[in-house]
Amino acid sequence: MDNCFILKGNICHTPQADSLTIKENAYLICEGGVCRGIFDVIPEPYKNLEVIDCTGKLIIPGMTDLHTHAPQYAFCGTGMDYELMEWLNRITFPEEMLYADEEYALRAYEIFAGKVKRSAASRIVLFGTIHPNSTLILMDLMEQSGLVTYVGKVNMDRNAPPGLTEESASRSAADTRFFIEEAIRRGYQRTRPVITPRFAVSCTDELMKELGKIRKEFDLPVQSHLSENPGEIDLVRQLVPEAHFYGDAYDRFGLFGGEGNTVMAHCIYSGPEETERIKSNGVWVAHCPSSNMNLSSGIAPVRRYLEKGIRIGLGTDIGAGTSESLFRAVTDAIQVSKLYWRYIDQKAKPLSFSESFYLATKGGGSFFGKVGSFEEGYSFDALVLDDSIEPAAHSMGSKDRLERAFYQELDRNGIVMKFVDGRQIF
Ligand code: GUN
Ligand code: FE
Fold it and tell me: What is the pTM of this model?
């Protein structure tokens, strides 16, 4: 069988959110791209497999970026002095307009793809722009990167500037069908389309209805934004008065979990009814702490979502988020949860390192199936981390080394090998 080997090193993962498990000098077995578990001694049936010796290095699951925007990487780290709606109009929409030009799209998306290939992400759920051909260019590049991704052609037929508003709901739907059919025709191995209404503010009911039909017809997942900013939520209330709450504006059209997997970014201001619907429809929440700080959006009640058993992972949300580092997302999530506890709700215990690590691995990974853990039967997504690139004056146990690597963002230079579904990316 292809794709069978063993990694030896200090193996760290979180089968449960609250218990980081570390096995030192252990063997991690990959059989046909699937993890067969962690062993102190190589079991008999696997005795003849090649052992890749990473002794002394940390081995962790590949991480999932559950929400980000590829076209926004071009301005990442700039234009941070606004709240959501003003930021969209001043910074984001002018940039996204440029992707009408496929040469520009290729140039910009090559930079993005190069960056995420080296990052801690093995899986990403991505927004493109409204432009089907440019978004297909992004899909080609993601396929070449070796990562497993969902890529969405964005839909928006209102409340955007003329160059970025689709001419009608039916035109937007037709472009979406073309995009999906072409993606299928290209026969990608690891790159899949996802239905992507930008948010309720930018999609008419007519468009939502069309997208609901397309979702069902092609059996695709859905991604969008939800309850991110108070001004945005007011707008949705005015634009969709029939909806009982923001999320209901999607659910009315079959775009909010239930039959198809759905991931909603942010969910900062979700009330009891919306939270209940997220839970009952099995919607994933993509918590994006960097973005939420930069746009002064607020802090999502992650502890409450975990206690309710809601599916949740982390997103970098570039370019409202200012780092593609998922190590950074993990520590940002911990830090904002501490402020939430201190300032907002003393019953909402801050996230532990283990819990936040879990969100970025097994939590978000579940959107892709059995992903983000080294338990038997999980996809073999793995990172080998050389944290010795950052000198330390005294020796540390693996737990401290791991935590230090995250807080110091050693995913930028310290990842020396990356595997996705057992394939070595570098
Ligand atoms: N809501 C609608 N579009 C966007 C976007 O591009 N980024 C963020 N953070 N929120 C949005
Ligand atoms: Fe976003």
Answer: 0.98
Q: Is 225 in the pocket of ligand 1 (CB under 6 A)?
A: yes
On average, the pLDDT of the chain sits at: 98
- Distance CA(392)–CA(208), nearest Å, equals 54
**Ligand 1 pocket residue status of 317, Cβ below 6 Å:** yes
Same domain, 83 and 40: no
Same domain flag for 166 and 314: yes
Structural domain boundaries enclosing 84: 63-368
Distance 68 CA to ligand 1 centre (A): 9
The CA 383 to ligand 2 mean position distance, Å, reads: 26
**Inter-residue contact 331 to 406 (CB < 8 Å):** yes
Domain final residue pick, 321, 344, 368 = 368
| Atom number in ligand 1 closest to CA 295 | 9
Question: What's the Cα-to-Cα distance from 125 to each of 50, 88, 148, 156, 247, rounded to whole Å?
Answer: 33, 20, 9, 19, 19
Same domain, 103 and 175: yes
Give 5's strand partners. Answer: 30
Residues 292 and 409 both lie in one domain: no
335: left (phi over 0), alpha (psi -120 to 50) or beta: alpha
Q: pLDDT tens, 176-234?
A: 999 999 999 999 999 999 999 999 999 999 999 999 999 999 999 999 999 999 999 99
Q: What is the pLDDT of residues 108-143, one digit of tens each?
A: 999 999 999 999 999 999 999 999 999 999 999 999
Mean pLDDT of 85-91: 98
